[in-house]
Amino acid sequence: xVNRKELNPDSSPRAAFGARIRRFREDxxxxxxxxxxxxxxxxxxxxxxxxxxxxxTLPFARELDRAFGAVDSADSFEREWRDIRHGSLLExxxxxxxxxxxxxxxxxxEIGIIPGLLQTPAYASALAGGDVHRGTITADxxxxxxxxxAERQATLVRRRxxxxxxxxxxSCIRRPVGGPEVMGEQLERLVAFxxxxxxxxxxxxxxxxxxxxxxxxxxxxxxxxxxxxxxxESQIQGHLDRQSAFVLPALADYHQLQAxxxxxxxxxxxxxxxxxxxx
Length: 279
Known about the structure:
The protein is of the alpha/beta class. The protein is 49% helix and 12% strand.
């Protein structure tokens, strides 16, 4: 088929939605033009949603259900749209996690919260519980989020674990989460993490000011074949990038961040000072 774009449904919930439209459509022998005849949307719009260039909307999902005879079914497009809209994982993150579990080196930078790979179960549950309290996710989605985190952490426990380089903004260790007991246990975990032979833990102190190159979380992976990719996220969206035009400057900035941050010994000393101040 001319100009047929291959889809990767594992890359994001939006991509999975688009791939499913294509599967349903082709199972019926319909072209995008034929499907458009059953909808109030153009074939160009259908193409954009199938390939992930446009996000699906609720009205579009409902029209798909009517066209495909899936209204109120367990696998309706409306149900899938609601899972995307209120899902527990950011777009782009599932694909990143797949690569993370195979990475030879992992570089992390985080602001405000302890990086997920270093979180205790109680700390992770407290964060997810806060989102439930605000109504941004359901209790089931919170449980899924914590379970995914546990699976990510488990992939790092292997015969040849990856080198894990972590820089945390000072706010990560000073922001109390879950109460004194949870926070105390979490800081103890950080100290134990720093003692591992395959890890480096550094704190980027407040006083580096404008010399901190990143204002959002950043994850950089080096795979066993030396391929490097970067994942960055905002409050509502994540993006995995393999293009050297972005990844290589980000890696250079990360090295500069490490140079500006406290040494591991100084970072552990700061963490221990914060631990002493917990009531």
